[in-house]
Specification:
The complex is a heterodimer.
Chain A (H helix, E strand, L loop, with lengths): L1 H32 L5 H6 L15 H17 L3 E5 L5 H12 L4 E3 L8 H9 L10 H7 L5 E5 L14 H13 L3 E8 H11 L7 E4 L5 H11 L4 E4 L7 H8 L3 H20 L3 H11 E5 L2 E4 L12 H13 L4 H8 L3 H14 L2 E4 L8 E4 L4 H11 L5
Parallel strand pairs in A: 1-4, 1-5, 2-3, 3-4, 6-8
Antiparallel strand pairs in A: 7-8, 9-10
Chain B lengths: L1 H43 L2 H31 L4 H28 L3 H18 L1 H16 L7 E4 L2 E8 L3 E6 L4 E5 H5 L4 E2 L7 E9 L5 H13 L11 E7 L5 E10 L5 H18 L4
Antiparallel strand pairs in B: 1-2, 1-5, 2-3, 3-4, 6-8, 7-8
Classes of the chains: A alpha/beta, B alpha+beta.
């Protein structure tokens, strides 16, 4: 009896370990075989926010709440806070708000960390008519005239997780309160920054109206992909792994029925992978394209890589990046209280593992490192299991 | 006279014959008993039985090793439930031993109930005298497992030894101290001593960081720095609050003791958190010219 149990455990573990190796090898092949997607097609699947409303997927509930918050502002002058995960279409939705709902609204956005009061004042002066103001107090005093609507995106850019790193954000929150009579502030904040700032500086106490951006449902996600594929014929190929029942179903149907089944199965997997996140859906889609011929696309389910051997130091760095949306190596050094070389070295390792990627933003002195969205879900599981986080 | 002599001789003859008969019977009976006992002993200690016992012992040893491996694997994979998994480890070991001993005894020896009672009673008496300390430790082990004052993975302090409980055995409990030494403590001693448990089955634990500052400080400024030093630490469990408390002491010289109370995300990083907060706060105090 005991021997049998041990033997079964050994078999199970052997199978598990062998599977991982094979899977990793398979992914390596996949990466090598990845086809080059034509630029014209890739543009349809850009991860940048949409500036027009044509491809916007319905956010009627959130927009309704925003309209209500605006009506409330006219009475009680309360700003509104949008909280959402990166890649859920927050910026696209706000572009839509500016185009359709509040056409006179101004959008303020900075892709890199705002480190000083001067930088913040400079940014604010681009939309406020107070040219003589030198600081936030001056702006607040000089701000008169017609009421404005200002959308300030990603206020997590105003803080750095270090001693005195909250000062600018706290001052900005005071500035919002000082100017809320003249300005309807629409603020956005990354979900993970909100989780941290809510517990560290009670940021939620500054907003009576907090709108959590919901993840999209399976239908909406399929719509996002299908809309972008208009004009192309999609051919779904058999996935690498499938259940016996599904294989039997495929064998028992005609060509059209097979395509229907494969498409259904593909979008189910895509939704499971994306968890309602548009960026992750797009990445899954792009990774699944195996061939393009004229206007025909051949699609084979992407097999995601499982995350193994992520050390504690690496996890803590990844968490810090997630809390700030993106960080430069210099900022990471300050956040981790670590020497820059050490932080750079771990970042390089994380890049090799594909867990982070970097981007040079206009005006930035250094590249900004951000989490590779492909692994966001897996990383969240790791944060929960290993860092005891409740994201 | 002659008559009396004859009667005596007759009586002696009868007695002699009875005695001889009794002796012969007794010798026969003892011989039979000894033969029986010898054959039983030979049967019980047969090579097959001995080999079976060894095989069972080997199986038990392998099972326990496999269980250790399985528990380690699960605890590493499911770190969040690490302590719950570890809690089951000693219980599983005891069950394996109990099942193995019961199976061996019942299968190989199949003793009569009276024999079991007699054996238990005599063993208890003999063992009780011979190995009082050992028994105390074993009972101590049972008490620890069932009374649960701590479990594997907890951080406890016993007799000045502070560290993570890495093994709860039948005789001893082992603690891995902060300087990575393994301290082995007899279980009997543990049940008779005060045990301080820092996390009691939870993954996180409270850490108190003591910062010592001059008596004339700007408390508001110091409080902000101390709070932010804790709240920005990568090891903090942000779900639980951070408290900064001030105490003045005048023992050897006047000083302000600032206590930062916060929860570390995993009890394993307790000292790393303490050091991280102290280092960051000291740097900020220096920059603010508080020292």
């Amino acid at each position: 009896m005991l021997t049998e149990i041990i033997e079964n455990i050994r078999k199970w573990l052997t199978a598990k370990l062998t599977f991982n190796k094979e899977e990793a090898a398979h992914i390596m092949e996949d990466v090598e075989e990845q086809i080059v997607i034509p630029k014209s097609y890739a543009q349809r699947f850009s991860l940048d926010p949409l500036s027009t409303s044509e491809l916007i997927v319905s956010r009627s509930e959130e927009l309704q709440m925003l309209t209500k918050a605006y009506d409330n502002w006219k009475i009680s002058q309360n700003p509104v806070l949008f909280v959402g995960e990166a890649g859920t279409g927050m910026s696209s939705m706000l572009n839509h708000v500016k185009n359709q709902l509040f056409t006179n609204a101004e959008i303020l956005k900075d892709d890199i960390n705002i480190a000083s009061h001067n930088e913040l004042v400079k940014l604010l002066l681009t939309v406020l008519d107070t040219p003589e103001a030198n600081n936030l107090n001056d702006i607040a005093k000089q701000l008169t005239g017609e009421a404005k609507i200002i959308i300030f995106e990603n206020i997590e850019r105003l803080f750095l997780r270090r001693i005195h790193g909250f000062n600018l954000l706290k001052d900005f929150l005071l500035f919002i309160h000082a100017t809320k009579k003249n300005v309807f502030w629409i603020i956005t904040l990354n979900k993970y920054s909100f989780y941290y700032l809510k517990r560290s500086i009670d940021i939620d106490a500054n907003f009576l109206s907090i709108i959590q951006l919901k993840s999209f449902g399976a239908k909406e996600i399929e719509e996002v992909i299908q809309t972008r594929n208009e004009g192309y014929q999609l051919v779904f190929l058999k996935p690498e792994q499938m259940s016996r029942m599904f294989a039997r179903k495929l064998n028992n149907t005609d060509k059209e029925g097979r395509q229907e089944l494969l498409q259904k199965q593909f979008f189910k997997r895509l939704y499971d992978f994306s968890n309602g996140n548009i960026s992750r859906s797009i990445l899954f889609w792009l990774k699944s394209i195996v061939r393009i011929r004229d206007k025909s696309l051949y699609i084979k389910q992407y097999q995601p890589k499982s995350l193994e051997n992520v050390s504690l130091d690496e996890l803590l760095i990844l968490e810090a990046i997630l809390q700030h949306t993106s960080l430069s190596s210099k900022e990471l050094e300050l956040v981790l209280r670590q020497e820059q070389k050490g932080a750079r070295l771990i970042l390089e390792l994380l890049m090799e593992k594909g867990l982070v990627n970097y981007r040079w933003y206009e005006g930035a002195e250094r590249p900004e490192y951000q989490i590779n969205m492909l692994y966001l879900k897996e990383l969240k599981d790791l944060f929960r299991n290993r860092l005891n986080r409740n994201f | 006279m002659k008559k009396i002599f004859c009667k005596i001789v007759l009586l002696y003859g009868l007695l002699h014959s009875f005695t001889v008969q009794a002796q012969e019977n007794a010798t026969e009976e003892v011989g039979e008993n000894v033969e029986g006992a010898l054959s039983t002993a030979t049967e019980v200690l047969s090579p097959a039985n001995i080999l079976t016992i060894f095989a069972v012992l080997l199986t038990v040893w392998l099972t326990i090793k496999a269980l250790d491996f399985l528990f380690d694997y699960l605890a590493n994979r499911l770190n969040r439930y690490r302590l719950r998994i570890r809690r089951m480890q000693p219980v599983a070991k005891i069950i394996v031993w109990a099942v193995a001993i019961y199976s061996v005894v019942m299968t190989l020896f199949n003793p009569e109930p009276q024999a079991v009672y007699a054996l238990l009673a005599s063993s208890a008496l003999a063992l009780g005298f011979a190995s009082q300390d050992l028994l105390k430790n074993i009972f101590g082990g049972f008490m620890i497992i069932f009374d649960n004052p701590f479990q594997l993975g907890d951080r406890i302090s016993i007799d000045g030894n502070y560290g993570e409980v890495v093994n709860i055995g039948m005789r001893t409990t082992q603690i891995n101290t902060l300087d990575d030494s393994i301290v082995t403590i007899p279980n009997s001693k543990i049940i008779n001593t005060n045990v301080s448990n820092a996390n009691t089955g939870a993954l996180d634990c409270m850490v108190v960081v003591n910062l010592w500052l001059p008596i004339h400080i700007n408390a508001a400024q110091v409080k902000k720095i101390a709070y932010e030093a804790a709240v920005t630490s990568k090891y903090l469990n942000i779900d639980k609050g951070v408290n900064v408390l001030f105490f003045d002491t005048f023992d050897k010289q006047a000083a302000t003791n600032v206590k930062v109370k916060a929860y570390v995300l995993d009890a394993r990083y307790e000292k790393a958190f303490e050091s991280d907060v102290t280092e960051a706060a000291k740097k900020a105090f220096n920059e603010a010219k508080i020292y």
